[in-house]
Amino acid sequence: MLKLAGANKGLWRDVWKSGDLLYCFNCSTCISGCPASEADPPLLIRNLVRMVVLGLEDDLLEEDTPWLCVTCSRCEEMCPQDVKPFELVLAIRRWQCREDETRLPPVLPELYERGYTQAVEGGEMRKAVGLEKLANLSEFPDLLKKFRAMLMEIEIVKQNDYMFQVAE
Amino acid sequence: MRYGLFLGCNMPAYRPDVEKAIRVSMPALGVEMVDLEGYVCCPAFGTFASCDEIGHMAVSGWNLSIAEGKELDLMVECGSCYSSLKTAQEHMVQDAEAKAEVDRILAIAEKKYEGRATVRHVLDVLYHEVGLDTIRSSLKKTLEGLHAVVQYPCHTLFPSEVVGFDAPPARPHILGDLVEALGATVDHYSSEYLCCGGAGGFHRGAAHQARDFARRKFDAIARETKADLIVVSCITCLMFMDRVQLELSSGDGEYSIPVFDYNQILALCQGFDPQHVACISDVPRDSVCERIGSLGRGSQLSHREE
Asked: What value of ipTM does the predicted structure carry?
């Protein structure tokens, strides 16, 4: 049975300033056609909506399933109530990151360091197909410095600045 | 026609043959591409969109401002990059307060985005700007006699009011039409419009179920079509649908349908060297490359040329 005594009734405002999710009538359209709804445990956006609306903060903080989303946005298209389920999944991830910094995507410091999630400059493979080495952000030291200064102004980066230390 | 070519991260790092294919096949159609020096990650949905909304808009704004500085729109192949940039752009239009904060953050980097530069997917450019006739007349070889199935990139379909250029969004046709313009027969199948399942955290967090999800699609292709090849137009679809067939083949059954990005198969038909435009894959593509190499121009096209 759900215990609502300790529920945070204002949770939905903390998670997402939009009230779109209050229109959810539990039809499950967001689940049918969702690849990650087949995961174990499954991503069931409808259930996440209930969790947010009922204010089940502790449960929501422990949910790993929002991170299974493939970002295809089919649910966003099909939702008959315009709840914007995909936007909600991202909003839940952001709320979790704000509440618990261990939720921050591990790739974030890498993005700060070099501007990309992968080594875009490439290596032998680029040469083999007749392409030059790609001029990445590190080739423009002034730009890279500006990029990092810009990121440092972003709230979540500012709050967790210890994660974003690089040798200049 | 000029666009700022937004490469993203995975294409230049892992599939430079797709980048090469775009760089040779588009100019052959009159599309000029300009490199966006100093571009950064789009940013991927798993990064800033998942932890700080303003951060998402600011990093996308950085990229958009580079193209805007050149008075160009961006052209993107990667579905996720396309959708991430488009979504950030849309949020900046919808939310004036957020846009003001993004402006402040961009100004720290001496950047400015006024909303002029927009984002186009390469399929959108090929279909709506270049057109099927121009594509047909650029071909030196065709896919005549080959059967193809297509995988539509979800990120270019949904939500249609933000990212869409195909209609109806749940029954798209553009990629199929583009493949038919190369002379192939496009076969349809029951799970044609389903996601490949390769993006985001599904495969990373639930590999077994993600493989089962993909297996159903490949089984449907095998059962319901005569596909010699799969054509995609998203680097994630390409890498996933290619690699997962190896993973599936280690169990029961054999999964080995070659997967091509559209610009790769286009470049091959335009006569470019497969060693440059289609040489990196898990499932061997030699059978298709050799077949195209030996085909020459189809009879219908030769006839038209006379």
From this structure: 0.96
